[in-house]
Design a protein that fits this description.
By secondary structure, this protein is mainly α. The protein has five helices and no strands. The protein has one domain. Helices cover 73% and strands 0% of the residues. 6% of the residues are buried.
Length: 117
């Protein structure tokens, strides 16, 4: 009885995994997946402290910019320093995505009004 149950469970597991074996796409090798995963973790561990320091300094700088140039310019400084890529993903390691250390600034209020009119 136990042998019959073991055979049924084994066949059931094989039947469930068969469709995944028949995928037409070429899958990456396990070594490649491990390499990009490790590269992602190590890259993020090195990159993140620099990005965090840049964001903190940009926040401090935007405070001074607020006093000197107003809220719109201060928002641009804070946005540029704190937006962008924060983590290195496996797609970045593969070259499919780019790293944006400095983020894009939001459009100014004047340009938004010009587009509406």
């Amino acid at each position: 009885m136990r042998q019959a149950l073991a055979v049924m469970v084994t066949l059931g597991l094989l039947a469930l995994t068969t469709p995944s074996w028949a995928e037409p796409e070429a899958e990456e090798s396990t070594v490649t997946q491990i390499g990009t995963g490790v590269g992602s973790v190590v890259g993020s561990a090195v990159y993140f402290p620099f990005k965090a320091a840049f964001c903190i300094l940009g926040g401090i700088g935007s405070g001074f910019t607020l006093l000197a140039a107003g809220p719109e310019t201060a928002d641009k400084v804070a946005s540029a320093s704190c937006r962008g890529t924060w983590v290195i993903t496996p797609d970045v390691v593969k070259g499919k995505e780019a790293v944006h250390f400095v983020g894009e600034t939001p459009p100014s209020l004047e340009s938004k009004q010009a587009r509406v009119e």
